[in-house]
3-hydroxyacyl-CoA dehydrogenase (Vreelandella malpeensis), 506 residues
Amino acid sequence: MATSTSSSFTTIGIVGTGAMGRGIAQLAAQAGLDVRLFDLKQGAVDDARAFIENHWQRGVQKGRLSSQQADAFSARLAKADELQALAGCDIVVEAIVENLDAKQALFSDLEAIVDTAAVLATNTSSLPVTRIAAGCRYPERVIGFHFFNPVPLMKIVEVIPGLRTRDDITERVTALGDAMGHFTARATDTPGFLVNHAGRAFGTEALRILGESVADPATIDRIMVDQGGFKMGPFTLLDLTGLDVSHAVMESIYHQFFEEPRFRPSPLTRQRLDAGLLGRKTGEGFYRYVEGQQQRPAELEIPEADARPVWISQDDPESAALLARLVTDAGWVLEEDDAPSPHALCLLTPLGEDATACAHRLGLDAWRCVAVDMLAGLDRRRSLMTTPATDPDYVNAAARLLNHDGTPVSILQDSNGFVLQRIVACIVNVGAEIAQQRVAEPATIDRAVELGLGYPQGPLAMGDHYGVRRILTILERMLAATGDPRYRPSPWLRRRAALGLSLTQA
Ligand SMILES: NC(=O)c1ccc[n+]([C@@H]2O[C@H](COP(=O)([O-])OP(=O)(O)OC[C@H]3O[C@@H](n4cnc5c(N)ncnc54)[C@H](O)[C@@H]3O)[C@@H](O)[C@H]2O)c1
C-alpha cells in the first residue's frame, strides 16, 4: 500500500462518498493526503468512513498493515459538514450522480469556494469532460480523473484533460494517480475515454453472433474463455454488470460517436431490458441464477460415429498440418490427394469466411464439408461450423474426430468468421482505431485494457499475437460478405498489415 505522496497536492476534497468516492478517499489517505469528505445525503459520509476504516482494520488483522499505519490513515479522513468546508482543498474530486447539470452546478458552487489554483476533477464515466468544464469560469483547471469499480482493486485511473485543460494540471493529476498506486492512463476526451471505448467490441459482436443464431450464449462464452483466454465470456459479463447499466453504456457511446456502426448496440438487449431480464441481480439474464449460481447448459454430447477418410483444405498449410496430425493421432485415414475421394469428410479452415463460401470457392460438395476454427490452434476447445447443407452424419463424424482426445467441441451454424475470429477481430480493430485517433499511446492502450477490462492482452498485442494480416483478412472478408461498415478495417491496422509492422508501432 502506498503511504506517502509524491504529488503536489496536500488536501483533497471528495464530493459524493458512494461506491466510487469512498474508494478514491481510501487511496488518497493511503497516499498521504488529507481528505475531506462531503455528501448531500445525511449519514453518507459516516457510512463511507466506517466502510474505509473497517477495510483498514481488516488489513491490520491480516498483517498487511500496522495499527499505527491504520491510525495514521484514519486521522487523514475528515468530514465536511458543508461544501464550504472544502475551501482549503487544492484538488476536489467529484463522484456524485452521473448527471451533467448536477456536475456543472457542483463545479460552479465549488469555484466560489476554492482557491483559483485548485483543481476540479470529475470521476464521470460517460459525460464529456470538456462539456462539464464548459459550465466553469476557469475550464482550464477541470480534468477527468476516472477510476474503476472497485477503486482499490482496479489498479488503473484514466486522466482525461478537456480541450481547454492546462498541461501542468494534467501532469500534476497524473502524478497524483501514480502516488495513489494506480496505473495512470492518459486519454483524450472522447466518448468512453479509453477503457470503455476499447470494451465496445466484446459485447456488441457477441450479441450480433447471438442475433444471427450462430450459437447460444453458453457456447459463445465457452469459446471466448477456452479458446480466447478471457476470464469471463461476454454473456456472463453482461449478466454480471446488469443490462440496466451495460445497455445504457452501449447506447450512449454509440450515439456520442454519431452512430458509428462499430459500436452499434443490439435490439436483443433493449428487449431483454424491457422484460426485466437484467442479469444476476434479477435472477435471470442470459443465464438463470439459482441461489447465486449460474445455471449453464451441459457441454455438447458427441454421438458415436464411424471413422471416415478425411481430406483437409490447404488454404493455410500450418493449420492443415495441425489438423493432419490430429487425424492420424485419432487413427483415421488422411487423404493427401489434391481432391477428396467421393465420401471423404472435408475439413476446411476459413478465416473470416463462412463454411458455405469456403466450400464453394474450393469447388467442394457442401454436404460433406465442416469448417474448423484454427485461429487459436486446437489446444483447449475446438469450434466447428457447418454449411446449411452439411449432412448430420458428417457433422457427427467431424465432432467425434475433433473430440477423440476428450477436448471439448462446439458446433456453430454457418457464420462469416467463427465466434473467436469475429470477436477478436472486432476487439483488435476498435483498439487500432483508438490508436489511430491518438486517444492514447499504443502501450497505454494495451496496459489500460489489461487492467481495466481484464482481457488476456491489450487489443494491439492481441492483434500481433494472432497475426495482423490474419486479423485484416477476417475483417475484409466479413465486410465484403455482409456489406456492414461495422467491419471496415481501421487504417492503423491496414497500414501495419501492409508493412509487416507490429500494431504497437506508433
Ligand atoms: N459505480 C461505478 O462502477 C462507476 C465507475 C466509474 C465511474 N463512476 C462514476 O462515479 C460517479 C459516482 O458513482 P457511484 O457509483 O459512486 O454512485 P453512488 O450512487 O454510489 O454515489 C453517489 C453519491 O453522491 C451523492 N450525491 C449525489 N449528488 C450529490 C451532490 N450534488 N452533492 C453531493 N453529493 C451528491 C449521493 O448521495 C451518493 O452518496 C458517477 O459519475 C459515475 O458515473 C461510477
